[in-house]
Amino acid sequence: MMSKEYFTVEKEFKVEFYDVDSMDICYHGNYVRFMEVGRCALLDEIGYNYIDMKDEGYSFPVVDIKVRYMKSLHFNEVAKIRSSVIEYENCLKVKYEIFNSKGELTTKAESTQMVVKESTGETMFVCPETFINRMKAAIAG
Q1: Handedness of CA 121, 122, 128, 131 (dihedral sign)
Q2: Catalytic residue among 19, 21, 52, 64
Q3: Among the four residues 14, 108, 110, 137, which has the most C-beta atoms within 10 Å?
């Protein structure tokens, strides 16, 4: 089943020397870091980033990550990550697609973050009102 994409941002990044193994192929664990690059760009564009979350007394820890690798990225390649919010009311769920320099889809992924009230450590099952309102504004354009 296809997930509805509420808001999408694309960001280019370069595969650095420290990202690759001895065969100049990107180490699989670094794709999670690329997802974070895409997620931070997405949150900045929405206007509710990790600083805003913390200022409001919330943290959004990652509780689930799914990654499917289809092609490798290589050293010095300029790649692009497309990050899309697919859930934002009860949790933050983001879908990712990573493309190589030829425009080929290399990786599909998804992350889920729950909201935690920092003062109590309590998991919230509804996202903060500020976040929901900024998401709705971003969706409306």
Answers
A1: positive
A2: 21
A3: 110
Please give the Cα distance from 65 to 122 (Å, whole number): 21
Q: Where are the alpha helices (DSSP H) in the chain?
A: 30-46, 50-55, 129-140
Q: What is the spatial distance between Cα 103 and Cα 89, in angstroms, rounded to a whole number?
A: 32
Sequence-distant (≥ 6) Cβ neighbours of residue 32 within 8 angstroms: 65, 67
21 belongs to the catalytic site: yes
DSSP string of 16-41, one letter each residue: -GGGB-TTSBBPTTHHHHHHHHHHHH
Residue whose C-alpha is closest to residue 30's, from 18, 40, 12? 18
The model's pLDDT over 98-134, given as tens digits with 9 standing for 90+, comes to 999 999 999 999 999 999 999 999 999 999 999 999 9
pTM score of the predicted model: 0.94
